[in-house]
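The protein record quoted for completeness.
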Amino acid sequence: MREHIIEAMGLSKVTIKDGKVVSVSEPEVEYCPLFDHHRGIKRLTSEAIAENMQFRIDDFGMCMPNRQLRMKDFLNFGISEIMCTLLDEDVIDCVVMVLEGCGTLIVEEPELVQGIGGRVSGLVKTSPIPELIAEMGKDNIAHPKTAEIDQLKGIELAIAKGFKNIAVTVTLAGDIEEIERIKLENPDVNIYVFVVHTTKKSAEDARKLFDGCDVITSCASRHVREIGENESIKTVGQSISIYAKTENGRKFLEMRLKKIGGEKPKKDNPDLPYPLI
């Protein structure tokens, strides 16, 4: 039995087995502006989350062998959209990211980055799906036998394959120090860190992730937002702000803005996740 665990929508823990949602914990965030604006979900409950997750399984094959992998831009500004732009502009060669059924893998195609990252976030654990592993290529997957999520191994694999400009999505503060080690050991390689899924990070972890990233998304994180509002050198978005920590990060956000025609007018009272945790 294939089991997949996702921390999704309001930090609810969702377990999926063989194409069915089998358990959903109560969310810790009651309101998410993205799911309100795009799905009309005014209040996150375990029932609403279960319905949405089953819709994803039935609609595009989330956690299934028939998973639809490619997609055009979905949001004006999300992490996957930014990385798609960087691939389009040849700023990066590949993205180290996570896919259900594969775990950590290397992706070079913009529409794959969007189809993978734009549709599912917060993947905590996954089981091998042979059909997806075959489609993505075993040699592009960090742990093809187990589908383990291991971003450090993914970076090392990308370097071994000869990539010189690598973007990586990171959720764990513990990965930051190891990424710095890999950077020092490979001075001819550029590794750009994009931090995702930051809700409920501790103050200490938020600090480590912000200091070690190029770009970080705020999600419903109180600590990331506090740091970002004070220290970001470029901020895009109000409901779910995205912050640039480095000059490269600022350049990346501005490249995406240029592609979509600039920033939208700021709202006086933007919708925010509730509560921030």
User: Anything to note?
Assistant: The chain has ten helices and eleven strands. The radius of gyration is 18 Å.
